[in-house]
Amino acid sequence: MEPSNDVALDIIITNVVSVFRTRCHLNLRTIGLEGTNVIYKPEVGKVLMKLRKPRITASIWSSGKIICTGATSEEEAKLGARRLARCLQKIGFKVRFSDFKVVNVLAVCSMPFQIRLIEFTKNNRPIASYEPELHPAATYRIKTLRSTVQVFSTGNITVTGPNVQSVASAVEQIYPLLSECQKTPS
């Protein structure tokens, strides 16, 4: 990530979670009966609706709040949310697409080396924590980016953040710290 090292890391976005509002009340029973690819869950008070392209699953509440999961980019999340709004309009609701925002991005990245987790945690003590009895990864929280990085000894990392930019920045920020604690090949 640094210009002197010339290391190219592939950051693969695996899930983008977004929310939007329809600005109208939604009858969940009507959506369950007339919608396609829906699962009506009256005991929880929501409907799950799935789209094939883009591959998105939406949780729909009667208040008009909709949470979309499963997209692999922010653009795909917005396209899927708009498509869901259009499906609800076709059922007969007066849906107005509003308040769209991406709330969470999950990405994975693989370092070109393995990591000594105990050494990594000791070097970054206040921000990093490692409980091998509870979870096989060390957790590194970056408050300024509102991101969390799970570091595995294999060199794989999982990054969670509010948007794609903060996820990329988190990987850039943690790479030099990880390279200090890399395992030497035996």
UniProtKB/TrEMBL annotation:
**Pfam families, A to Z:** TBP (PF00352)
On whether Nuclease is a keyword of this UniProt record, the answer is no
Q: Does the keyword Lipoprotein apply?
A: no
Q: What is its main location?
A: cytoplasm
Q: Which UniProt keywords apply?
A: Cytoplasm, DNA-binding, Nucleus, Transcription, Transcription regulation
Please give the GO cellular component terms listed in this UniProt entry. cytoplasm; nucleus
Gene Ontology molecular function: any one: DNA binding
Q: Which InterPro entries match?
A: TBP, TBP-like, TBP_dom_sf
Location of the protein in the cell: Cytoplasm; Nucleus
What biological-process GO terms show up in the record? DNA-templated transcription initiation
Gene3D superfamilies recorded for this chain? TATA-Binding Protein (3.30.310.10)
Annotated signal sequence is: none
Q: To which protein family does this belong?
A: Belongs to the TBP family.
Q: Which PANTHER family match?
A: TATA-BOX BINDING PROTEIN
What is the protein's given name?
A: TATA box-binding protein-like 1
Q: What is the lineage of its organism?
A: Eukaryota, Metazoa, Chordata, Craniata, Vertebrata
